[in-house]
Design brief:
Blueprint lengths: L7 H8 L4 H12 L5 H17 L3 H14 L3 H18 L2 H13 L3 H24 L3 H11 L6 H18 L2 H15 L4 E4 L2 E5 L2 E10 L2 E9 L5 E9 L3 E3 L3 E4 L10 H10 L5 E4 L1
Parallel strand pairs: 5-8
Antiparallel strand pairs: 1-7, 2-3, 3-4, 4-5, 6-7
Length: about 280
């Protein structure tokens, strides 16, 4: 059957009152035809939506890979490869995540590469949070173990190690538990943490502002990220529960029981402080 000249409305009509798998068969059949790029993208998006709804994340990811391939603008290629990577995170195939991320970065400049890395890292964290809420501990562990091999700050690594310790213990993985505990005791607690006071820097035309604040008797570290037009895009926030000694240009953390997490009450307070469209990441 030939579908030359078919429109989006024609496709929508054909999909009405059809089951998901019949829709997949119909759309896959059309996709084989020579069609305009906008129609092919439309079909891919439709298929991706169905696949994702059916938890067929790998198939959904392939659709976004195809959309990226037929897209002309580099910004679109990057966007769709990122979406591809995020779906592979849901699938749990981290090798394919890395491959999709590399494809996104191949069309990106230096600042865009950093942004892509941040988005993928954040997607891993968000998926881990979902798994934790669903009590899917083995999947949560796999993500945290993957994150430890990524380019993280010491604070991020320490936070993930603390979470892994709890998960290893709950899962009865005592070998990994004691190995990690030994690693933390040997490395983490013997390091003095030097926390700079407020300052800002500009890289690739983007401003980053670092702030050390005290709110509601809680030491807070805030990093604000601005875009090229100096508009605040996202912030990272964590707290320090411990014995902080103040120096001229920085704080020093001496306490071996430092906790970098931010409590729920403080999260609510900070969310009210910033605009709703600002992406916020808490530790």
């Amino acid at each position: 059957m030939l579908y030359s000249g078919i429109s989006k409305s024609d496709i929508e009509k054909e999909l009405q009152r059809k089951g998901d798998f019949v829709q997949i068969a119909y759309l896959t059949d059309i996709l084989e035809e020579k069609l305009p790029i906008d129609i092919k993208k439309f079909i891919c998006f439709k298929l991706a939506g169905i696949y994702e709804k059916k938890f067929m994340f790998k198939d959904a990811a392939k659709m976004f890979d195809h959309v990226a391939f037929i897209s002309i603008a580099f910004s679109e290629k990057i966007k769709y490869h990122i979406k591809e990577a995020e779906l592979y995170i849901k699938e749990g195939d981290f090798e394919l995540v890395d491959h999709a991320m590399k494809k996104a970065m191949s069309d990106a400049n230096a600042s865009e590469k950093a942004e892509i890395y941040f988005i993928i890292k954040n997607s891993y964290n968000k998926q881990a949070e979902i798994y934790e809420k669903e009590m899917r501990r083995n999947r949560t562990v796999k993500i945290y173990e993957k994150l430890l091999h990524m380019d993280l700050s010491e604070l991020e690594k320490n936070d993930i190690k603390a979470k892994l310790l709890v998960l290893y213990e709950k899962l009865g993985r005592l070998k990994e538990y004691f190995a990690l505990k030994h690693n933390i005791e040997d490395k983490k607690w013997k390091i003095l943490f030097f926390i700079p006071k407020s300052f800002e820097e500009i890289k690739n035309g983007r401003k980053t502002v670092y702030k050390s604040l005290k709110i509601k008797n809680k030491n807070i570290r805030v990093i604000e990220y601005y875009n090229e037009i100096n508009k605040l895009e996202r912030i990272n926030i964590w707290g320090f529960c411990g014995n902080l000694k103040e120096r001229k240009d920085y704080f020093v953390a001496f306490d071996k029981k430092i906790d970098f997490r931010t409590g729920q009450k403080l999260k609510k307070y900070l969310k009210k402080k910033y605009q709703k469209n600002i992406e916020m990441m808490f530790f």
